[in-house]
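job 3f2a | input accepted
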Amino acid sequence: MARINVGHITLNVEEVGEGPAFIFIPGLVGLLNAWQYQIDEFSKRYRCISFDHRGSGDSDRPPLDQYSTEAIASDVIALMDTLGIEKAHAAGTSTGGAILQNLAIDHPDRLRC
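job 3f2a | predicted structure (113 res):
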């Protein structure tokens, strides 16, 4: 795991595997290990990336008025930019699904599926 500064926040990120990028967005608790079982399999064919949401795990904790699905979606785009990922597959569960909806609405050109 690594803490990566994405410009406006530092996120705790785990990256494993090679191939097309696949970003896994955790639910409300926001911890990257929520996807471990899926990443174990998907990393055989994909570059799998998961992260702790802002305020969770080892990611930065901004002031309380800076938490929303839109803000975390912006974190995902900044993370993609920092890692040199133009487009990625993405999966989200629970709150991660709401974050993924923001990505699909605001940044459809950055998602493969």
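job 3f2a | The chain has a mean pLDDT of 96.
job 3f2a | closed
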